């Protein structure tokens, strides 16, 4: 547990140094929230029934999608690719700490930092300006907490896997663009999966991405309750296990290669 | 004319340099096309479900987006690195532009090209052709000329906005993040017809950071649409003029910034 | 060729405040402090001189070179480079100067060297005949053809420096600024570049201003030294003169027949001991080596001895320290 706090503190120091960047990120989230809630409101006045849920729920879903992004996606891929390209990965390999765990600790630390510093003001702004609602029941709130934890783990492992690709390509920037746009699409960050055309929805339902936004947000607004919510959490859990296994396997391959190459 | 000839020579070298990284080329192209497909896909899902967004049909919105992407593609092909001006200043590369008997601005913009613009262009042309056919448009020559002007204006607007922001680095040393944010805001706005947002927002993107002239206003003219708010319609012809104005403003700022640079030493 | 009088360049730098509160405060108001990068310097360089321009980092070397190039405008004072004021006629001035910055190549990183040279030909509007002639010359002197088709990023540091040197001289400049061109270059290439600088200087009467930390460069190629520290010129003259003026100190190295303890000697001080050897520093105006030797040999038997002249580097260091004490 100590190590998480160490990384949280470090994240705080870094962000004080890049404070301009910090405020800009906040501002850009604000603008995205503004846009999404306008679009939903306009669409709702056009055809009130077409969402399947109330306007309040729909706006909450969209604004929440932006608010979650502030702390869910910490991007371990950038750290890994930078370390490999600069050769600094050697120092990571020399640490008496499993690299996968090290990255998990680092990402969790950064996530906790963002949660405290970025997500809280974002949620506050969401509540005051953009009609963000509280979860309907205490039960939904608790399940939501479990669900975002699992969603974070899914995103972390996807990022970790993306990072290991750096050995093959040396530069993951252009791949990352495709990856991020696919995530925000298939994860249902702004548009929930139930609005997708049937064929696309079928694909999105089986992919792990929906664990990141669609499941937690749906639980939060009360679209998933009871059995359905538990099933969704089960889905997340399965993907966490699968992705953890793949990530550890990929890392062992990468580790072997780094050792052979001598870094 | 000398400057223009020099610019083409610089660009030739820049392309040659870029071609050194071919593996990047393909992943980059795929990345950009995916990005655009997803951007449009989200809009597509919404609009097809609701038939239209505030009176804008699916293909009209595809048209709107592609009008921006076409101008954007030229910008990202030739002027993308304007945003990286701060790196030139920090690393001292900028001094080299001032060391030559040639216009420093030409030397700067001729320094790099970014092939990803080609992916944008491909996507933009495809999207535009689809939208044109599906909307059953039959333009006369006036509209085609204006269409060309609108694309070039879009390029100039995006370039000059980036240049204005990048010049801030001459004072503060940093400007890239701000530039990134404004462009993020821009690409968000370009997805949606402006008239869904409120008046305050409209004033900002019309008067303060004139990104609405890249696609929304010219699209009104090209698609024979009227603005919901009313009273803003005359702006649909103004893109080229606003672009020229912005070119003038950014040229002034650039020259001023250069003076400032040589008197303060960066 | 170059006349500089009472040149000053002051910078306004924002003061960063420490700590979290400090960084919040800098968001709203910023204090400035003035640094005197170049503080009232004057000198004159004749055509065909090779001047070594030396000083510690941050002494004002780069700032003054940038002003000579017209990149920076002086706070006050006058500069004339071959009759032109650089910052007023930057472009014209650019045609008559060539510059090499050792830390930073001016060549296009990802394209073959020859492509960069062709581009410089166009930028400087070099005639076809002159371009051809110069390229042949650089092939002879720098073996440019060995790597002219290689992208710059694949060149060794020595090759890159040779390519940069060729690029700087392609337009037959009257004046050449070399800002630490030898940094990180191996001994063989260094020697080659020195010969090249001398040749260019002799054959084309190119005036050279060379910044370096390597004192061998100074001794081998420079006819004159200017030392700058804290924005002021603290020495201007030739190398021998400098030795006479500042090099009062000599060192007598004595090897004794056996180990001896440290002992007092009039007018000299033991500065170093190593095995049976001892180093005695003395001022040559206070005592002579012979009287010192005579004195020492009365106490202990001497096996071997030598008198060391001060290294030019050590002299430069004493000059810096001298100004540091004054400042």
Description:
- The complex is a heterotrimer of chains A (263), B (266) and C (327).
- Chain A contains twelve helices and no strands.
- Chain A is mostly helical and 263 residues long.
- In chain A, 44% of the residues are buried.
- Chain A has one domain.
- Chain B is an all-alpha fold.
- In chain B, 73% of the residues lie in helices and 2% in strands.
- Chain B is built from 13 helices and two strands; from the N terminus they run ααββααααααααααα.
- Chain B has helices spanning 2-18, 22-50, 58-78, 85-91, 93-98, 104-109, 116-134, 141-167, 169-172, 176-189, 199-208, 216-222, 239-264, and strands at 52-53, 56-57.
- Chain B has a two-stranded antiparallel sheet.
- The longest helix of chain B is centred in the N-terminal third of the chain and has 29 residues, at 22-50.
- The two termini of chain B are 30 Å apart.
- Chain C has two domains: 2-243, 3-Layer(aba) Sandwich (Rossmann fold); 248-309, Alpha-Beta Plaits.
- Chain C is 38% helix and 29% strand.
- Chain C has eleven helices and 13 strands.
- Chain C has helices spanning 19-28, 61-69, 90-96, 113-123, 128-142, 157-169, 187-204, 215-221, 239-246, 289-299, 312-326; strands spanning 2-14, 32-45, 50-54, 76-81, 97-101, 175-179, 207-211, 224-229, 232-237, 249-256, 268-274, 277-283, 302-308.
- Chain C has a six-stranded mixed sheet, with helices on both faces. A four-stranded antiparallel sheet of chain C has the order 11-12-10-13, covered by helices on one side. A three-stranded antiparallel sheet of chain C has the order 2-1-4, with helices on one face.
- Chain C is globular and about 75 Å long.
- Chain C starts with a strand and ends with a helix.
- The relative contact order of chain C is 0.13.
- Classes of the chains: A mainly alpha (263), B mainly alpha (266), C alpha/beta (327).
- At the A-B interface, α2 and α9 of A face α2, β1 and α10 of B.
């Amino acid at each position: 547990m100590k190590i998480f706090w160490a990384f949280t503190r470090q994240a705080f120091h870094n962000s004080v140094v890049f404070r301009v960047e910090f405020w800009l990120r906040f501002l850009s989230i604000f603008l995205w929230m503004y846009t999404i809630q306008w679009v939903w409101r306009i669409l709702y006045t056009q055809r009130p029934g077409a969402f399947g849920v109330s306007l309040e729920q729909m706006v909450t879903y969209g604004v929440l999608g932006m608010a979650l992004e502030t702390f869910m996606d910490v991007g371990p891929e950038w750290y890994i690719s930078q370390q490999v390209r600069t050769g600094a990965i050697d120092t990571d390999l020399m640490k008496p700490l499993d690299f996968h765990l090290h990255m998990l600790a680092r990402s969790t630390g950064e996530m906790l930092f963002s949660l405290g510093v970025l997500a809280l003001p974002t949620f506050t702004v969401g509540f005051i300006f953009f009609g963000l609602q509280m979860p309907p029941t205490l039960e939904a709130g608790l399940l939501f907490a479990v669900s975002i934890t699992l969603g974070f783990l899914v995103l972390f492992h996807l990022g970790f896997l993306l990072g290991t690709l750096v050995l093959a390509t040396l530069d993951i920037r252009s791949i990352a663009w495709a990856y991020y746009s696919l995530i925000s699409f298939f994860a249902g960050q702004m548009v929930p999966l139930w609005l997708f055309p049937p064929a696309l929805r079928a694909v999105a339902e089986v992919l792990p991405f929906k664990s990141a936004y669609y499941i937690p947000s749906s639980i939060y607004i009360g679209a998933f309750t009871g059995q359905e919510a538990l099933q969704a959490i089960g889905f997340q859990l399965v993907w966490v296990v699968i992705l953890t296994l793949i990530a550890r396997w990929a890392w062992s391959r990468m580790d072997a290669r780094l050792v052979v190459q001598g870094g | 004319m000398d400057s223009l000839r020099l610019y083409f020579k610089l660009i030739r070298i820049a392309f040659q340099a870029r071609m050194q990284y071919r593996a990047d080329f393909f992943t980059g192209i795929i990345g950009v096309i995916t990005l655009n497909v997803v951007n449009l896909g989200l809009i597509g899902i919404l609009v097809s479900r609701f038939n239209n967004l505030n009176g804008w049909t699916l293909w009209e919105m595809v048209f709107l987006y592609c009008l921006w992407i076409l101008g954007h593609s030229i910008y990202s092909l030739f002027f993308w690195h304007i945003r990286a001006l701060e790196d030139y200043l920090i690393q001292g590369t900028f001094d080299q532009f001032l060391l030559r008997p040639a216009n420093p601005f030409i030397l700067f913009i001729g320094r790099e090209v970014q092939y990803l613009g080609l992916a944008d262009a491909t996507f933009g042309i495809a999207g535009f052709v689809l939208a044109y056919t599906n909307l059953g448009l039959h333009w006369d020559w006036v509209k085609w000329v204006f269409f060309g002007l609108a694309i070039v204006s879009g390029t100039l607007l995006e370039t000059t906005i980036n240049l204005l922001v990048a010049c801030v680095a001459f004072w503060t040393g940093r400007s890239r993040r701000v530039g990134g944010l404004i462009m993020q805001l821009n690409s968000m706005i370009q997805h949606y017809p402006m008239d869904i947002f409120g008046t305050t927002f409209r004033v900002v993107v019309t008067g303060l950071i004139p990104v609405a002239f890249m696609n929304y206003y010219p699209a009104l003219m090209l698609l024979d649409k009227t603005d919901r708010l009313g009273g803003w319609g005359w702006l649909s012809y103004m893109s080229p003029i606003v672009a020229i104005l912005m070119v003038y403003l950014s040229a002034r700022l650039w020259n001023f910034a250069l003076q400032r640079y040589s008197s303060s030493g960066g | 060729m170059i006349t500089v009088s009472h040149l000053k360049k002051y910078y306004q730098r924002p003061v960063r405040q420490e700590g979290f509160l400090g960084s919040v405060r800098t968001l709203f108001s910023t204090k400035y402090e003035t640094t005197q990068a170049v503080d009232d310097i004057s000198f004159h360089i004749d055509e065909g001189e090779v001047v070594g321009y030396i000083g510690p980092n941050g002494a004002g070397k780069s700032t003054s070179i940038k002003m000579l190039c017209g990149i920076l405008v002086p706070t006050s004072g006058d500069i004339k480079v071959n009759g032109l004021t650089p910052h007023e006629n930057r472009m014209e001035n650019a045609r008559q100067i060539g510059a090499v910055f050792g830390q930073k190549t001016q060549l296009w990183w990802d394209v073959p060297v020859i492509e960069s040279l062709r581009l410089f030909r166009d930028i400087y509007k070099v005639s076809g005949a002159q371009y051809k002639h110069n390229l042949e010359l650089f092939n002879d002197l720098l073996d440019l053809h060995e790597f002219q088709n290689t992208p710059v990023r694949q060149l060794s540091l020595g090759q890159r420096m040779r390519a940069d040197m060729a690029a700087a001289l392609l337009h037959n400049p009257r004046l050449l600024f070399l800002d630490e061109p030898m940094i990180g270059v191996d001994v063989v290439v260094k020697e080659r570049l020195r010969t090249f600088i001398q040749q260019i200087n002799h054959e084309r009467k190119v005036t050279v201003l060379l910044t370096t930390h390597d004192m061998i460069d100074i001794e081998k190629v420079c006819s004159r030294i200017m030392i700058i520290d804290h924005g002021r010129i603290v020495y201007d003259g030739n190398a021998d003169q400098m030795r006479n003026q500042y090099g009062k100190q000599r060192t007598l190295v004595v090897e004794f027949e056996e180990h001896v303890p440290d002992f007092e000697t009039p007018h000299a001080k033991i500065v170093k001991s190593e095995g049976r050897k001892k180093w005695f520093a003395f001022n040559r105006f206070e005592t002579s080596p012979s009287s010192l030797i005579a004195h020492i040999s009365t106490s202990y038997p001497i096996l071997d001895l030598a008198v060391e002249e001060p290294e030019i580097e050590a002299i430069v260091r004493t000059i810096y320290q001298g100004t540091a004490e004054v400042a």
